[in-house]
Write a structure and sequence with these properties.
The chain is an alpha/beta fold. Helices cover about 35% and strands about 20% of the residues. The chain starts with a helix and ends in an 11-residue tail after the last helix.
Length: about 475
């Protein structure tokens, strides 16, 4: 009766701790230059060593200047110090670092599966809330704070409460104009940002099984916006084909042994979950956010809900504030609303397939003169592959700025930002006030919707243009 998550959890529990906690083993720990540098600095101050450097990896992504190039400088306060701190301390502890001069560098949640550093059945932590992304390959992955990061470095363990289990089943086949980003936005809109609070959310159903690995990673990326501790897609042949041959993946006999283990982790046919949700995807439209929370989402051809009619109490007041900030009103349609900027990137939608999707729309077209458009690949490997295919020329020729790999304008960490009060359509995962710059109003959408809207200079429904 055990679920896929139950089997992972049971395999990693060392012993109970206190009334509700458990000490569990961590298989992989990833560091980036902000929280990772802080954890290593605290570890050194305490006179401790890294328990198992072979299980820890590091990269630079958060404060990287994605416009300037690959030098060890950052445009944000203390950014350069973070980069240098991680470099020095990682090497002093024999931690493998994918630095700015390494072709394997990139956003941690992009390069971990890309390099084959995360597998089904694994526990995986990093000092970033979107670590749940790599649940797309079947790992139990979640974000931790710097103090917990120090504990993992010193002991290769962490204390956790056991999350409840939630299965979200997506029925039906997605139309050609609907992708994983639309699926996850629709889920959050349907259930709310607390819909999976305290849960390990397993995504299943025919719509999920039809997604390529990039789509599954996108689904799990926004599990944190769903309120979940983590998001997981149980592995199948798509997973195994994706991981096989990756640089750090098991080889030869070890691969055969790993594959046999992974295949035995599937949920039992009679597995019982603490909570079940079903979502019918057969008529799902492309999605877009209208407010300042990922749950403020609607079909792109719909109307913004009227807070006075659709909500009550504090929620009504919050939605009214959101609309005021966004410069919108209830009952308004978003189709045709003019935009000032467009962004394709972040750990949500910056993989090669995301860029291919956008490039198919951009080819032979030009971004509207009033729109500033930026694309930053999720890793140096994605950037190199895109350039080998000529995708960068499509982006540049259309009027997009083509950046270096890093977190970039997901939250202005690299020092860049859009002009105050700009209306931006973005492939990122959060649309909070000021997330992409002071007063910036962000609409979350898929790469296809962002690319086409950049061309038209306004929010556009891709289905109505025969794409």
């Amino acid at each position: 009766m055990r679920t896929y998550f139950d089997k992972i959890w049971d395999a990693h529990v060392i012993r109970p701790v206190g009334e509700a906690g458990f000490l569990i083993h961590i298989d992989r720990h990833f560091l980036h230059e902000v929280s990772g540098a802080v954890s290593l600095k605290s570890l050194d101050a305490a006179g401790l060593k890294v328990r198992n450097p072979n299980l820890t990896f590091a990269t630079m992504d958060h404060v990287v200047d994605t416009h300037k190039g690959r030098d060890m400088t950052s445009r944000i306060p203390n950014g350069t110090e973070f980069l240098r701190e991680l470099s020095v301390r990682a090497r002093s502890h024999a931690i493998q670092l994918f630095g700015l001069d390494d072709p394997r560098q990139g956003i941690v949640h992009v390069i971990a599966p890309e390099l084959g550093l995360v597998f089904p059945g694994m526990t995986f932590v990093c000092g970033d809330s979107h670590t749940c992304t790599v649940g797309g390959v079947g790992a139990f992955a979640w974000g931790i704070g710097a103090s917990d990061g120090e504990h993992v470095l010193a002991t290769q363990t962490i204390v956790q409460t056991r999350p409840k289990t939630l299965r979200v089943t997506f029925d039906g086949v997605l139309s050609e104009q609907v992708c994983a980003k639309d699926l996850t936005l629709a889920m959050i809109g349907h259930c709310g940002t607390a819909g999976a609070l305290g849960c390990a959310a397993e995504f299943s159903g025919t719509a999920i099984r039809s997604l390529p690995m990039e789509g599954r990673l996108t689904m799990c990326n926004m599990a944190i916006e769903f309120g979940a501790r983590t998001g997981i897609v149980a592995p199948d042949d798509v997973t195994y084909q994706y991981l096989h041959g990756r640089p750090f993946a098991p080889k030869e006999q070890l691969w055969d042994q790993a594959l046999a283990y992974w295949q035995g982790l599937a949920s039992a046919d009679d597995a019982v979950y603490d909570k079940e949700v079903r979502i019918d995807c057969r008529n799902l439209a492309p999605q877009i956010t209208w407010g300042t929370s990922p749950e403020d989402v609607m079909a792109i051809d719909g109307e913004i809900p009227d807070p006075d009619q659709a909500f009550q109490g504090p929620t009504r007041e919050a939605k009214q504030r959101a609309l005021s900030y966004m410069g919108l009103q209830g009952g308004q349609r978003l189709e045709g609303v003019a935009i000032d900027a467009a962004f394709i990137g972040s750990c949500t939608n910056s993989r090669l397939e995301d860029l291919r999707c956008a490039a198919r729309i951009l080819r032979g077209s030009r971004v509207a003169p009033s729109v500033r458009a930026i694309c930053t690949p999720g890793s140096s490997a994605v950037k190199a592959a895109a350039e080998a295919e000529g995708l960068h020329r499509i982006f540049i020729d259309s009027g997009f700025e083509w950046g270096e790999a890093g977190c970039s304008l997901c939250f202005s960490a690299g020092g860049d930002g859009f002009r105050p009060s700009a209306r931006v359509i973005s492939t990122t995962n959060r649309n909070f006030e000021g997330r992409q710059g002071p007063g910036v109003r962000s609409h979350l959408a898929s790469p296809a919707t962002v690319a086409l809207s950049a061309i038209r200079g306004r929010i556009v429904d891709t289905r109505k243009l025969g794409l």
